[in-house]
Amino acid sequence: LIFQGKVKVGNTIISNPAIKINENSEIKINDVLIPKKDPSVIFIYYKPIGLIVTKSDEKSRPTIYEDLPKEMRNLISVGRLDKNTSGLLLLTNDGHLARFLELPKN
């Protein structure tokens, strides 16, 4: 895309991928602004017994997401705890971070 002249930083078409940008740089592809990624956040949630760790349940069992404020219901759980288990659970908005933290080698 860069070599085809389709990428702009600010209003300047770039022709070389070796360019320095920062968090304030506006990047466009085909004149469409690429949205900036929200910063990663991690929350610690105390999961009580009786809730399941899923966004929705076909059996209509209560989930942790029903217990969260509406603005936090898009978060991803890092791992799970069983329905009959209570404990701390990490929640994040970053799927890559969640996967990284779930892998045993990490």
UniProtKB/TrEMBL annotation:
Residues 42-101 form the Pseudouridine synthase RsuA/RluA-like domain. GO terms for molecular function: pseudouridine synthase activity; RNA binding. GO terms for biological process: pseudouridine synthesis; rRNA processing. The keyword Isomerase applies. PROSITE patterns: PSI_RSU, S4. Gene3D superfamilies: Pseudouridine synthase I, catalytic domain, N-terminal subdomain (3.30.70.580). Keywords: Isomerase. Belongs to the pseudouridine synthase RsuA family. This is Pseudouridine synthase RsuA/RluA-like domain-containing protein. It comes from marine metagenome.
